[in-house]
Structures are given as C-alpha cells and as structure tokens.
Give the backbone structure.
Amino acid sequence: METARGALSRPPAALFSSRSLLITVLRLIALALIDAFAIWFVTRLVNDGEYLLAIFAAVITVAINVAFLFEGMYPYRWFAPGLTLLILMIIYPTIFTLYVAFTNYKDGNLLTRVQAEDVLLSRTFLPEDAKTYSWTAFRSLEDPNRWALWLIPTDGEGEALFAEPGQATPLSEIDLGENTLDEDGIPTGLPGWERVPFAKTIAILDSVLAKTEFGEEDEKFMLNPKNPTKQAGRFERKYTLNDDGTLYDNETGVTYKAIRGTYTPVDGPYKNAQGQVTDAEGQPLPVIRPGYYVPIGLDNFKRLIESDKIRGPFIRVFLWTFAHAFFTVFITFWFGLFLALLLNVRFTPGRAVLRTLLLVPYAMPAFISVLVWKGLLNEQLGVINKFLTSLPFIDTGPRWTSSALWVKVAILLIQLWLGFPYMMLITTGALQSLPGDIYEAARVDGANAFQQFRHLTLPMLLVAVGPLLIASFAFNFNNFTIVELFNKGGPPISPDQPAGHSDILITYTYELAFGSGRGADYGFASTITLVIFLIVALITVFNFRFTRSWEEISENV
Amino acid sequence: MKKHLALLLVIALVLGALPAMTSAQETPTLLIWADETRAAVIEELGVAFEEEYGVDLVVQQLGFGDIRDQLRIAGPAGEGPDIIIGAHDWVGELVTNGLLAPIDLGERVEEFAPVAITAFSWEGELYGVPYAVENVGFFYNTELVPTPPATWDEVVEVSKALMEEGKAKYGFIRQEGDPYHFYPIQTAFGGYIFGLTEEGDYNAQDVGVDNEGSIAALKWLQGLLKDGLIPSGLDGGAAEALFQDGEAAMYITGPWNIQRFLDAGVPFDIAPIPAGPGGPGRPFIGAQAFMISAFSQNPLLAQAFLTEWVASEETQLALYEKGNRAPALLSAQAKVEDPYLAALAVAAEAGQPMPGIPAMSAVWSAWTDAITLAMQNPDADAAELAAKAAETIRAAAAAE
C-alpha cells in the first residue's frame, strides 16, 4: 500500500525538472489551445443564448485544466477525453431532454430568445414618405476605407444625391470637376473619388457597404437588405426592443409582448370592443413569428394526461409496445431454443454447417432484412400474397400493411426472423455448459426426456440466459428500425389521432417530434421520452434484482 | 509559486491564441445546400459567378428533404448554409420558425411565372427566387388508350373495357393516401382543401375536405375498389412499376417520372386531368426555389447571388436540363421545347398553387390518414373519415 501511494504522487517539483521541461511546455501549449477553443466556443454559445450548453462546456474546460495542472489529479488526465465525450454526448443531451420536456420547444417557438430577437431586430421597412434609389458605389482616393453612394431616385422624380458618411449632397450642389454624367445619370468620377464598377461591389456588400451609414445623422441611407444590388433608401429598423422586453413596431405603432415566447400584440393605435389590437380596418392583428421557447411547467405532462386525442392513442401505443416486446422475446426464445436443442443432438449430420447458415439472418443488417420483408409482404405485388391467392381455397391474402391485426402479425414475423439466431446462439452456449453428470443421475432415477428438459435443462438454462431475455425485452421496447421501416407505424387509427396501429412508443415519439407531416413538437416528444426512460429504467432495476436472485439460486443448485 | 507560474503561462498562451482564431477572411464565402441534381449545376455554372464577383461558393450536397430538417438545427446554431434550395411547401414552416430571410425582386418579379411567385410568398413577403415549376398530369399509355378520356366517367368506362378485354391488368390506378395526388380527383368532384380569401390567398379557416365534393370523390374511389377496378394497397413505387410495365393504362404523376417511363420504353402521353361533376380536375402547382437563411453571415451577398445568378436564363435552363422540370423564369420557359413539359403546362392551366400555410402539415397527416383508411376499407364511412380529418385540420388552423 505504502509503496503504491508513493509511486502515484510524484513530488510536485518534478513539474519543472529539466528532464520533463519540454514535455511540460508542450502540454501547457496544448492546454492553452484547448482553452482558447473553449473560450471562443463558450462565447459563441452565450451569444446564441445556449446557456445550458455554455455552462457544461465551461465546467468541462475548467475540469480539464484542473486535471492537467494539478499533479494530484494525474489519473484524470487519461479519463479526460472519454469523460468529456461522455458528458457532451450522453449526460448533456439527457439533461437537455429533461429540460425540453418542460418547455414549449416546437414549431414557431424553435429559437432561443437571443436568436428570435436577432431575427426580428434585423427586419427593416421603408417609411411611407421615403423613396428608393438605385445606387453606384464610389471610393475615396485618399482613404480607401471611405465609401459613398451615388443615389438616383427609382421613380425618376427628384434630384440624384451623393451620400457619403455624415453628409448627403444633391446633384445641383456638386462640383463634377472634369467628369461628366453618363447616360444613366451617374458621374464617371468625382474629385477625390473613384467610381467602383458594380462587379467589384458584390464581394464587399456585407463587409463594407452594409456596415456603412451614408448621409446625415437623421437621414441615413442604407442598401435594401431584401434587394441590395438594385435598391438603397432610408430604410429603418422595423422593431425596437424596449427595456422591458416588449417589441415596438416602428411602422405600425403596435407593441408586442412575448407571451409564452410568442410575440403577441398588446397595445396599438387601433383596438376593437373586446380590447384586441387591430389594424386600421378592424381586423385583429396576428402574433409575429418567430417566437422563442420558454419553460411552461407541467403543461406537456398535463396534455399527455388530459387530452383525449393524445391519451387515447398513447394507452393503445403503450400496450402494443409491451405486447410487441414481450411476444418478440417469447417467440424468438422458444424457436431459438428449439433449434438449439435440435442442433445439440450430437448425431445430427452437418450440424456445424446448419448452425452457421441459421446465423445468417442475425448477421445481415436488420434494416436490409426489413426492407426485403416489406417487399415480400406487399399486399398486391408481394410474393407471399401472390402465392397465397394462387392457392384454390384463398381469395385474398392477409392485409399485411392495412389491417390493424395483420400488421402486428407481420411485425412479429419479421422479429422472429431477425431474432431467433441470437436466441439460438445464447441457448446453444448455455446448453453446452450444462454438466452431463446430472443427466446421468436423472436417467438413473427414470426421468424421461421431457422431464429432463422441464426440470433440469430449462431451470439451469434460464439462470444463464434470463438476464439476456430481459435485456432483449428492453431492447425491443425501443426497436425503432423495424416498426418505422416496415410500415411507418401504419395503418392509421383514425384521421383525428396522431398514431398508427403498429406504432410503438419510440416511433410515436419520433412522429411527434420530427414527423415532417405533423409539425414538430420537441417539448411534447421529450415528455413522452421521459416516460419511456422511466419504464426502461424500471425494467433495468428489475433486471439487476432478478439477476441477483438467479445467482443465489444457481449457487444453491 | 511554480503552480501560479504555470497558470500564468496558460493564460498568456490563451490570450496569444485568441486573435489568431478571430482573424477576418478576405474573400467572402457563400455556403449553399443543394440536392444531388442541383449541386452539380451550381458547381459547374457557379464558377462564372465566383470569377466575376470575386467570391467563393461552397456547395454541400444533402438529400432534398434533409435540407429542410437540417436547416432547423444548423441554421440557428450558426452552422447552417447561406442559401438552400427547396420546395415551396416548406415556406410556411420555415418562415414561422424564423429561418428564412425575405427577398424583394422589385420589378423583376414579373419575369417569373406568377404561380411560382405566389407559391413562395408568405404574408406579403417573397422568400425564394424560383427556378422550377411542376405539377401532375394525366399520364396514359397511348397503345392501350388511343384518345385520353375527358371525364372521370369515361376513365371508368375505358378501365372496364381494357380489363374485360384482358388488354391490361388495370385501367386507371392511383397510389394510396397522399392528398397531393388525390387533389385533382377531389377538385373534379367539387371538393377542395382550403378555400380562398377575397385577395386570392388560401384561407386556413375555410376547410373543404368534408364538403360534399370531397366526400363524393372518396366514395367514387371506394366504388372503384369495390368493383375491383383499382387495386388497394398500392404505394408510389408499385403504381409506377405497373404503369411502366404496361400493366396499368392510366396514372396521375408528375415530370419526375418522365425520364423513367421513357427509359422503360412504355408509349405514353400526358393529358389534362379529366373533369368531373365539379368541373376540371385541378392539380397542385408546386415550385422550387433558392432561399436565404435568416442566419446567413453574408445576407446581402446571398441576395446578390439569387438576383444575379439564379434569376438568369442560362442558370434556369441548365437546372431544367438536369432536373427535367419547367423553368420558373418565363424567358427560359419559352426556350424549352419539350412536348411532355408542354402537355403538363396545359394540365397546369386548371391548376392551383399548393398551399404553404402551416395548417397544411395537418392536411399531410390527417387528410392522408382519411384517404388511406377510405381506400383500405371500401366499406368505411367516407363522410365520417372526412369529418374527422376536417376537425383535426380546423384545430390546427385555429392554433396558428
């Protein structure tokens, strides 16, 4: 013990010993690079309003620094990369999902507050009394960073202007010098300025021209953000953000307040009898998009419990999820065991070859097998139904994809195909490890083959594979690939319910969250995910308990 | 002491490294997300734009549908593209989520097919520069059906005759579900999905999937199923295969299948959608466009790319060559000489722009379910299914 501790904690002086000085410096440089990246990354996250992720990134960075700067934390240096990935890819998403379940993160409220404000504050409008102009860029000969615009009214009325930062001069007051106006009314040059051809202005649209304010302080010209190459004018910001977080619409005079993250009109020049803010014609004004997501407490959970439209399919889907996982394990286990027993008989000829062949469905990627089965089970063109209908006593084949019952049969059939080799594999292994002498004893006692199986093989087998069966159940509880690929959870239950007859919880959640046809509702989907997580967690706890109790049994066997 | 020294060294190195990471780029870069077909054209023809204006174009290739899904995640995170290509029915959803920047074409808006401009307009703003328009038409096998039927009654007669004579396995076929391919039939019987406001915009509050015409169209289909005239449980791929092999004589589909049918050598032509008791069958007219991400770091440059490059005849023609859809720019459209696209354009005369309002997402789910269930169970109560779908769509429209 003494020596081991001594070896681990080297004297701190070793940090700067000449032998390891180079390594220390290299390590510090690498650490500095990581820190530089982290600072840049965290700043960006804060700017985007992703505070949760920013905190995680900051904590991880500090932890990495601690691990590399303090000798006592030496072992953590080797854990650092793995732990970082674990936190970022497992723990953070889990906590984020937990958080999202309590928010209204969905279509229309997809952005963070900062992002939504940025989008809205970038919008512009042209005041009623303002004109639009076509523009030509000029560059100062003395100061290459100084730019100006030659502006010609689009409607042809009024004078052209020369707008440089801080002042705008009408054509009549401009000294053209030796230059002339070309056929479009643009001077070929100006004293102290050079005309910049259009093609040269494209690359600096964002970096220079959009950032420059042309003209006088109270009469600024800017390029039209919606049509920058053709138009400039006295565009103004459409919205102003007040200190209390409300948005003021500079064009219409309406004030918007973020209610549950959605900017809703609360005050304006026109109101109707019910107190709603309206436009000049008396039409109630809509909310403005985009909004941002905010915590909404337990509303998603309430919706899960209270809404008939959601709860109805949820219970159905819940039951089928259980049935699907249970029957899958049940049929694959018995079929797999049956084959394993057959192949365990020593005199079966060619059993090595057979065993290998029977593993093929397991070796094939599941999604390929599902697609093959999908083709085989096609109601009109599939081989199975074509064969069945060719028989004299069958008129129509089973409706594999359009009947509530048959679609479940079809999925279990595919599960059987995909799952039996695994069960055969694990039961074969378990069978071969069973001791031979107790069978001899059983035969001496006069037990027949079935009794041997029932009272010796099966109990001993279950001790070995029981935990695997429960793991298999938990896996099939969330077996997204098969259900989604085979029939996308269909056939539909009813047009007013967002679930299909073969949907399991995970595909149902996927449809709610990402199904492009239904509008995304990540908040609600996260709520369901939490429920699924709780169920799987319970199964796992059960599994551990069960494993322990089996171990006790096997010790007594 | 030495520990503090190490900390100081770290801080110094961090501060030293920071400016290097924030140094400005000289040449502005536009990141474009495009699907396979379009990406090739942009890479090929975009070189001229790069050279003329001194900017860099970077094209990332994504699956067409992935572009929309990924934009919602990458856009706000600042990892997204400056420009995407996409279909007009994304507009409602993307704008609602604040992911697109508006565009103002000024007078040049008249150079485009009006239906394409309408399709990409949302609450008075334009959100894309369209490059293609498309719609479905009535594809028929010219060997089996010499003259195209003008009404749905005639379609039934022709189907019966073909099947009785054993010339084809089926006459008219259609794929299951899918409101897009059902709309031409629905409108021919007097149904509709959304009514129009006085200004001609779609009115989300006026839902027509449970009106008499829509129910009649569902019942008509159920009748065909009961009589064994059309097969049930056909998906798009199976239906295309039947038409391509000459086993089915009539099929509603769009320009994306023209090349496939030509390659298969099946003799076919395209006619307008047959009429019904409610008037002509109206296909949805869709459009595809280049759009600008609201989170672009070079929004003005992106605008310039759209007005200077996408809205050019050369680009639009090149995109047509690869994509087989009619250009949206009228001058480019006039230069396309393709009998099939011309026939589809005739079918489009009765068409309507496909609604892009967010309530459409409820149509894609609930109305699809209703059509699917009606076709899967010919004895199901079409009126009840339609009513349930309408209820769901109205609830979605009210929530907007």
